Amino acid sequence: MSATIKERKLTIARAMAEAMAQEMRLDPRVFVMGEDIGQLGGVFGNTRGLHEEFGSARIRDTPISETAFIGAAVGAASDGMRPIVELMFVDFFGVCMDAIYNLMAKNTYFSGGKVSVPMVLMASTGAGYSDAGQHSQCLYGTFAHLPGMKVVVPSNAYDAKGLMTAAIRDDNPVIYLFHKSLQGMGWLGTEKGATVAVPEEPYTVEIGKAKTVREGSDVSIVSLGAGVHHALRAAQQLEQQGVSAEVVDLRSLVPLDRKHVIASVRKTGRLIVVDEDYHSFGVSGEIIASVVEHDIGMLKARPQRVAFPDIPIPFTPPMEQWALPCAAKIVAAYQNLKNEE
Amino acid sequence: MSNSILIPADLWEGDAEAVITSWLVSDGAEVGQGDLVAEIMSEKAQFEIEAPASGVLKILEEEDAVVAKGATIGLVE
Q: What Å distances lie between residue A23 and A204, B69, B72, CA to CA?
């Protein structure tokens, strides 16, 4: 028998649930609210086991009324509780945006710092399984654009647990966006790279810190969430062409770790941003602007972006897949960039 | 000694097949009896598969494999 290693991998769904359970054991102020998050365990599996352990008082199924339960969470947080609420699909933000943006994000400012709103708003993002334009968006840029809230986007189970623990312990409102294809639920299309080894004890991943997930010297591919896995596949393909690609996982959008991105581009001189959110007015533009504003002389070529085109997300699979970022588009972006040099 | 990791024959009603959505332990790694080792999904319900014994995991059916009730998906040796 060869030497064996004891290990334990988790899906992002399980990692999120474990972080919530551990914080609930430590802190009686933490509770969870949302649609189908109780006995069902969440439609994306991220609250499984919580209702069984903590019961209906702390794991609260709500009616389909996002305005009411997110508003209630803001009130509870302002009064000393630490709620975690789930907006099942980020696409449903429209009806409850007043509670999110005029109450959750701004109450600390409006009260002159006397009231803090320590809550976590988690929401699913992402396309790829034909759920149409009102269940498939990322809207990373929409939330990151609005001041007053932190925004995190994990790409794997280790970061998912650490960012959830950090978000629950944070005294500010945190938007926690998890991509459906990373959850380990088969019907959503499962990304294998997201299921990784996760320590059993509680730990935090600092909000606002990016991570280089693959070292390289010829080009920096900067992404977040599911895009990180497309970028890693593209980096493997580029390696076969003799190109050394570095992959940076942003992990947080607010605060944005501009220093980390700039340091990577300083090393490679080339930048491709991969974002499943819409092309215009979003994350990809902000990353490129951050680099160019800092020092345009670092770039050996025009930066490239691989993002979702500025169209509502199609339902029909061939059209949806045509529009989504993928490894082949990232490799093509690198060829564009090299052809111009 | 070898113990088969089976999809229980009574895990869900009907004859629908399931897909292995995740192996939560790598092939060749050590597992303890009762450890969660895999997740499978039948239609829209997800099920947990536990190790029947302690030992070293041998994966027989990879992720994305379609499996029926009663199938052997791995061994603990």
A: 11, 37, 37
B21/A5 touch (CB, cutoff 8 Å), yes or no: no
Best residue in B19, B22, B26 for a mutation probing chain A (most A CBs within 10 Å) = B22
Of B25, B44, B46, the CB nearest to A9: B25
Domains observed in chain B: 3-68 (2.40.50.100)
Distance, in Å, from the CA atom of A264 to the CA atom of A267, rounded to the nearest integer, reads: 5
Per-residue pLDDT reduced to its tens digit, A291-301 = 999 999 999 99
Contact A184 B22 (CB under 8 A): yes
Give per-residue pLDDT as tens, A117-165. Answer: 999 999 999 999 999 999 999 999 999 999 999 999 999 999 999 999 9
How does residue A2 score in pLDDT terms, banded at 50, 70 and 90? very low
Task: Please answer yes or no on whether B22 and A6 come within 8 Å at the CB atom.
Answer: no
Average pLDDT, chain A: 95
Q: In what order do the strands lie in the sheet with A30-34?
A: A59-61, A30-34, A82-89, A120-125, A174-179, A150-152, A252-254
| Active site amino acids of A | 66, 135
